[in-house]
Specification:
Blueprint lengths: L1 H12 L5 E3 L4 E5 L4 E3 L2 E3 L4 E9 L2 E9 L4 E3 L7 E3 L5 E3 L8 E9 L4 E11 L3 H57 L1
Parallel strand pairs: 2-11
Antiparallel strand pairs: 1-4, 3-9, 5-6, 5-10, 6-7, 8-9, 10-11
Length: 184
């Protein structure tokens, strides 16, 4: 493996302990997205990399590995984590519980170590909420249209009834006037 040899050479030739670079300390993701927690380290000897996740639900060890040797991924993250030789990890299909702080510790074989932190914010997709609002709005618009039609029909019926009543009233008033004039 050429990559492992190159990293080992970098670690052997780096002066003075362990260095760690975290290019993106804040990551925003949506539910079901895959995210890369990217880091790059250098050291004098072989390094042990450990990732932990800290959130309101507690602290969970994600993975630990030694360059070129074993990789130990916790059962909670089995099938969801991919590790890389540069110290980075990829989380697949993130959920709301994956939000929080991710701590990486790189320890070289001589005992020197360094730490890095990445903050991950996970947001829910709001399309379902927008769909619900659209359905409720369409329902209210339909009910409003039906009520407006009903009010129009009631108004039309009322005008017809008033017209008939006015016509009957005019006819009966005319008859009374005629009757009165005849009696005198």
């Amino acid at each position: 493996s050429i990559t492992f040899t190159l990293i080992t050479l970098l670690c052997l030739s780096a002066p003075g302990g362990v260095s760690l670079v975290v290019p993106q300390p804040n990551i925003n993701a949506t539910v079901a997205q895959n995210i890369l927690l990217s880091v790059e380290y250098s050291c004098r000897g072989a390094a042990t990399i450990e990732w932990k996740h800290v959130s309101s639900w507690g602290t969970t060890k994600i993975a630990e590995w030694k360059s070129g040797n074993y990789v130990n991924i916790s059962t909670v993250y089995k099938g969801r984590v991919t590790t890389f030789e540069n110290g980075s990890i990829q989380l697949l299909n993130v959920g709301m519980r994956d939000a929080g702080y991710y701590f990486i510790t790189v320890t070289e074989e001589y005992g020197t170590n360094t730490y890095g932190t990445i903050i991950v914010n996970v947001y829910e997709i709001i399309y379902e909420d927008l769909h619900f609002v659209a359905v409720v709005f369409a329902f209210l618009a339909a009910v409003s249209a039906i009520l407006i039609c009903f009010m129009w029909l009631c108004n039309k019926s009322l005008h017809l009834c008033q017209k008939k009543a006015t016509h009957k009233l005019t006819a009966s008033t005319t008859e009374e006037i005629e009757l009165e004039t005849i009696e005198c």
